Amino acid sequence: MTPITEVEGRRLALSNLEKVLYPATGFTKGEVLHYYATVAGALLAHLRDRPLSFLRYPDGPGGQVFFAKNVPPGTPDWVTTAEVPRVEGPARMVLVQDLPSLMWAANLVTEFHTPQWVIQDPEKADRLVLDLDPGAPATVVECCEVALWLRERLAADGIEAYAKTSGSKGLHLLAAVRGSSSEQVTEYAKRLAVEAERTMPRLALHRMPRSLRPGKVFVDWSQNAARKTTATPYTLRARPEPTVSAPVTWEEVQACAAPQDLVFGAEAVAGRIREHGDLLADLCEPGSAGRLPG
Known about the structure:
By secondary structure, the protein is an alpha+beta fold. The chain is built from 6 helices and 16 strands. β11 and β12 (171-180) form a beta hairpin.
């Protein structure tokens, strides 16, 4: 029988709690739900008011993995939804605004992916993201070198950057911005990527063809497009082990000497939050947002 639990007054049916989702470590669905309950205070701030794209992997990373953007069938009526503009026409999507909604969504077994804008003003971007993706034999170590350069370059324009692991191979840089459309942020991010490639031609790359990527770090500027989403801070990833897209300090970025230095599993991230709080909390403070130059 599916167990029923109550979360802040909402009744939830939580299924298959003993199911192993990550065979490499034996990490179960129950442990996935426990992780999200533990980090909810930090995670919810980065989900709030952002339409959620689900990257679902109900049978684990080795099973079927698929994106779902529309409100899933059977969504409880107390889960907040909103109409979201799309090129192909408006769609209704989920907003995870509270702990019961988070636990309901986590029970679907999903990565959380969100855009760089909030539902109250979808015409304006409030975040900038640069996705640093290494092409083998490059690793996150090379990503860190590029990230440090980008941090200084953004600071020269009065924009403060923060870093998190992708939870996979690379690194994400995030910054709070204001007063610009997604198109303007995308154009600015592309200029930064082009400048990075010009400055570090043997290391950084702004062009997308995969044939160019071996041994280099692709600075993916395109994630700023209004239609695109990026893995939300603190989401578990559909990888062989339960790795997390985890915020990191710039000291950790600078000290990274091997890929494993910036790999964080669910238990480690929960401990990091207890010790450091949310390293990305300032992204959610309106006063921290910078304006693009020009």
